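Async update (no meeting this week)

Hi team, since we skipped the sync, here's where things stand on the single-chain job. The sequence we agreed to prioritize is pasted below, unchanged from the tracker. I ran it this morning and attached the output directly underneath so nobody has to dig for it. Comments welcome in thread, and please keep replies under the output.
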Amino acid sequence: MTKIGDSTKIGDRLYLLAPDGRTIHVVNRSLTDSLERPLEDIRSESIFTIPVFEVRSLSLQTAAPANLKVRLRRDGARWAFETPILARANKAGVEGTINALNALQTRNFLAPADPRLEQAGLDAPTLRVTLEGNARRETLLLGAAAAPGEFYAKIENKAAVFTVALPPRLLADLHGAQETLRDRHVLDFDPPTVTSLALAAPGQPELSLQRLEAGQGAESWQLVVRSGSGQAPQTLAADTAVVHELLQKLQLLAATKFLSDAPSAADLENYGFNRPEREITLNLSTGGGLTGNTPSALTLQIGVAPDQRAVAYARVTNAPYVYQIDPAVLRDAPALVRHYRQRILRELPAGARIGGLRLTDLATGRLLLEKTAPTDAGLTAESLAPDPAPEPRRKALASLLAELRTLRARRFLADTFTPDHAELNGEAHPWKYRLEVTLALEGGSGTAQTTTSTLVFTDRLGGTTQLAGTAEFGGVVFEVTQELLDALFTLTYAEQHDPGPPPPEPVPPAAATPKR
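Output:
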């Protein structure tokens, strides 16, 4: 035993007798000062001591009569519910809750004779919170309210009772953990693992999208359309950016409300799953989620109740849960070929040439532009509009040539071409202009093969809207790009209706010289 002796005569220090009873040390007086500190000053204010990276499970239990038990466990980099349901948990939400629990601190400790112990309510706690780590566990018991936002509490198997303040958000997350800590994402997959997907809607032919690997990390997709009636499937190039956007929106699809974890057959019918508004099947190269690396598939069904068109419902066919979701997903995932097909209709190779252009006003039969290439080099902006052509015309012709070499659709409106009109929002618009493009393509023998490509256009329907159609490419109607719209507008309207520069202002007559 170490013994503390008298003070030294000089230096205000203390004599200290070592446990061997023979050795005497001279120490600083601060040693006794620290020993004389009250218990409240040396108590730790922390309640939980298991850091988030060590926590293996979080358990919650409410008081009777609900007596609800919730347990979440860590599974690698993920979290999952074990009770009361088997479901994915929100990793950020769970770990944020654990960090908030670790940040809790005691407010006041109650003395053994404190009369408030009788009203603390810790014999039947309102909430039990347990963190389990590596070979250790800590359980916090919450009792009655001591003050607004403050509760009596204690650590299980320890006698000390104290008060603790819980932030309202943390308290709500603990009491409603079944929903607040649940993963709201409807689907659990990684977009790069999707090898194909199929979309089906009532009254429409099923279509599927297949990933095509082109090597060196390149990627493309193709459409496969099955029209039935014994016809062979049709394949078309798909727009990779549109497919990626769809996969991203499906990955982010989240529940606005958890409707049921055990729906009955009648419930499923009421939610519209007897005839889903959309059915989307994802084929994965790996199981994804918690299912391992075995190739698997996920089938998402989206239902709409006949009397509630403002909401939609979702379920995955191999899981019992039903979610309420934003119906915007139906707009984002139409089962329409034109939504997914490649926007680039034609991209001329480097050796191809545009040999001639002929632009006609169909209403009057007037030729607005007719030009043939003067040499085998093909048309250029300079040959179309040599100096001193107006600058707007030169720019419009240069833009027109560039857009015709790489013909792109802003979006497709119809998969069939009607020779006399196009429809937009249920309104018919007659074709106004016809553009005939003579193309010279290099043949296998080195000789050029000449073909004519014909496009028809409506009048300009708005600041950014003009429709085009062609019997080529299987017959399509589409919105043109802004660049093509501006070029056509200059050649068909602005140039013809340009009043030209204003006339010069008249020169005022010279003032008369006053007589002297």
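Quick observations from my side:
The chain has four domains: 3-36, 57-180, 191-340, 344-494.
The longest helix spans residues 391-405.
Reply here if anything looks off.
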